[in-house]
Amino acid sequence: MNHLTEEQLVLYYYGEGDGSPAVRAHLDACEACRAEYASLQRVLNVVDSAPVPERDPNYGAQVWSRLHGSGDRDRPGGLSHWWPACHWAAAALVAALVVAAFLAGRYYPKARLYQVGAQTANAGHVRERILLVAVGDHLERSQTVLLELVNARPGEPLDVASERERAGDLVAENRLYRQTAARTGDTRVASVLDDLEPVLLEIAHGPERLTPEEVENLRQRIEGDGILFKVRVVGSTVRHREEKAARDASQKTL
Amino acid sequence: MDSLTESSDSVAVAQVRAGDSGAFRILVERHSRNLFRLAYRMTGHQQDAEDVVQETFLRAYRQLSKFDDRASFGTWLYRIAANCSLDLIRARKRRAAQTEPAAEGGAPDPMQSLPDQAPAPDRLAMSGEVERKVAAVLDGLSEMERTAFVLRHYEGMCIDDIGRTLGVQPNAAKHSIFRAVQKLRRALEPLVSSAS
Description:
The complex is a heterodimer.
Chain A: H1 6-13, H2 20-29, H3 31-48, H4 59-67, H5 85-111, H6 116-150, E1 158-159, H7 161-183, H8 187-204, E2 209-210, H9 212-224, H10 227-253
Helix pairs in contact in A: 2-3, 5-6, 5-7, 6-7, 6-10, 7-8, 8-10
Chain B: H1 3-17, H2 24-43, H3 46-62, H4 73-99, H5 121-127, H6 129-140, H7 143-154, H8 159-166, H9 170-195
Helix pairs in contact in B: 2-3, 2-4, 3-4, 6-9, 7-8, 7-9, 8-9
């Protein structure tokens, strides 16, 4: 009589496979296999006993709250925890720019009270120009990433390691710009950045090598939602606004 | 997962797709605890498991258009959570490799790091030694072995579904489970035998 293999015993333990009645019959008749199976059961039962920390009944509500960015503030957001240091560096740089612009607007005019009106307006322009330059550059880099994916050769797998890395950097910046644009009432820019973010996240957290189907899905997503078009249009508008702001500033200094 | 839950999930999914993002809350509240359990089994860390749960829902929300209505939403979420866990485990390994270059001759065999001498059975029950050994063996499994084993053993997923979740043939999933069980037996059998 052939004894049962370990594979057969494992499948039997998990109720898999179509040989269960035969295995059962063999176990009834064979003491050696019965002992072997009992040993397997003991080990797997012990594995079962490994505890999992309990979550309280409100755990789902807490997760929902965190997904909305409120609630437990000690924990980073799910994505932010995995951001590499370079992403934070990019975000920190942008934050520094925005804060610098804000401080320029806030304090510089106070130092020269006789020019309060003019200087406040000037600081406002400085702030706007810094933001416009940064957002314009961000949209241009995002557009490059999207174009590389959209223009990929159809029907072939695609190595997106580089795009993935760049998208990861862009996600951090995107959030900051989106929040700033929303705060300053620039709804058009905020809206396009809002649309752009999920796509960047998808690229950043996707595989390094895409199958032809995944490439096609991503292309359809980008083109179907009109994201590339919106990024182009708003990017171009932002550039025009930045040039106009620069012209206005130079005329005022003359 | 019962059919009532699945049908209720489908309603919530349809509402989210129709633009009611608040309906996603129902899905989050319903599935969070199960996802945490899976993520904890996969990663072995509470903090990581918390992150996996959040990341899973974020990905699910963004990719809801790809969800096939005929499938189970819970199984789909599990698949995303398993992939998130794998991403995190890989990232952790990359970070560890960068900070602690492997010793000459490759990575240490986790089996060898386990103590040779089995403690007395009475101590065994009290000390959590078995739990530590289980955790050590699970940590030593390959990504595929660990995921396949966790999905089969703890989550009761059938081998065909595990194959679909991992994007491999059922046979490959099956062999990953066998290898995981073999490693667990090798490490735990002496302890279990002496305790029984």
